[in-house]
Design a protein that fits this description.
The protein has 337 residues and is α+β, with helices and mostly antiparallel strands. The chain folds into 3 domains: 73 residues; 167 residues, Alpha-Beta Plaits (2-Layer Sandwich); 67 residues, Double Stranded RNA Binding Domain, CATH 3.30.160. The protein is 44% helix and 22% strand. It contains 9 helices and 11 strands. The strands form 2 sheets. It has an 8-stranded mixed beta sheet with strand order 2-3-1-5-4-9-10-11, with helices on both faces. The protein has a 3-stranded antiparallel beta sheet with strand order 6-7-8, with helices on one face. Helix 1 runs antiparallel to helix 2. It is flat.
């Protein structure tokens, strides 16, 4: 298409085609690079094996591990093939059963996702923040901007359970807390979501929080209720009411877009099953800090004994296991054989 004589007559379309071409070229270059590395390692391995060069064999083993990791990352990207996967994401966390304990747990989860996003090179921005009564947060929403942010983050949808010795219990008893995580694809300007102004109720209020960016002295925070669906969104991060309203509208469009996708695609029913009561028996992952340390994903049975590392944002292995598991379930049984 880019070789046609009239290619640049429609410059917007031409740029879109070139962007797609660049992405495809990069993918092909990656796989060509992988193939070349495999051939090089194979040749060098045979030579080193015959010459009994142990140091070279060890170096080649390290190179093979690095290559395997790179191929795995590329395979994960190939699994993110839906229209929404490349989009930015909106992560929403809500404290569940457990009072102050659960609110503190919700804040720990927020930190985990912010650290994860930072390690992935994603950009985050808190758009709504409702502090807890004594500690932590009741609810929070943030945007995550980056390549395939939604595709990765959607693996975190569900109920997260924490077991630990409570720092808020004078008797140092063990407590169980719950928090829910919802993830929505952030709708860009290219996706048209029709919203009737008459279907909206817009309220303004004074932002609250622990200070700094979360506090305003004017009624700049905005809450929008979409009456037909009952969806409520709010934004209080920006200083001006106008910017908060614009961000809240973007959040609302994302929620409505996801709702529409659920209605059109039966596969989204699996996501709906995860949106259960934030309490016992419905968790997708458990984080146990006492009497032992273990993080277990109940969908894939993947376990990690380094709970502190996971809570510091190292959750890629859980995301990858979920994506691999979801892909294998969607393949025809004869293909798996």
């Amino acid at each position: 298409m880019s070789a046609k004589n009239d290619f640049w007559e429609d410059q917007d379309k031409a740029r879109e085609i070139l962007q797609k071409k660049t992405k495809l070229t990069n993918k092909l270059d990656n796989w060509r690079k992988f193939n070349k590395e495999i051939i090089d390692i194979d040749i060098l391995w045979n030579i080193a094996f015959q010459e009994k060069e142990e140091n070279v064999l060890q170096d080649l083993a390290c190179d093979m591990d690095a290559l395997t990791s790179s191929v795995c990352q590329e395979e994960i990207k190939m699994m993110l093939s839906s229209e929404q996967d490349p989009m930015n994401a909106i992560i929403s966390i809500h404290a569940g059963a457990g009072g102050t304990e659960a609110q503190d747990w919700a804040e720990i989860l927020l930190r985990m996702y912010l650290r994860w996003a930072e390690k992935k090179g994603f950009t985050t921005k808190i758009i709504d923040y409702l502090p807890g009564d004594e500690a932590g947060i009741k609810s929070v929403s943030c945007t995550v901007e980056g390549e395939y942010a939604y595709g990765y983050a959607k693996a975190e949808i569900g109920i997260h359970r924490l077991v630990r010795i409570s720092p808020f219990d004078a008797n140092s008893r063990r407590h169980t807390s719950f928090a829910s995580v919802f993830v929505y694809p952030e709708v860009d300007d290219e996706i048209k979501i029709e919203i009737n102004e008459d279907d909206l109720r817009i309220d303004t209020f004074r932002a609250g929080g622990k200070g700094g960016q979360h506090v305003n002295k004017t009624d700049s925070a905005v809450r929008i209720t979409h009456l037909p669906s009952g969806i409520v969104v709010q934004c209080q991060n920006e200083r001006s009411q106008h910017k908060n309203k614009a961000m809240a509208m973007k959040y609302l469009k994302s929620r409505l877009y996801e709702k529409e996708l659920q209605q059109k695609n039966d596969e989204k029913n699996e996501v709906n099953k995860l949106k259960k009561d934030i309490a016992w028996g419905s968790q997708i992952r458990s984080y146990v800090l006492h009497p032992y340390k273990l993080v277990k994903d109940h969908r894939t049975n993947l376990e990690n004994g380094n709970a502190n590392k996971v809570l510091d944002g190292d959750i890629d292995e859980f995301i990858q296991a979920y994506l691999m598991n979801s892909t294998s379930r969607s393949l025809p049984q004869d293909h798996l054989k």
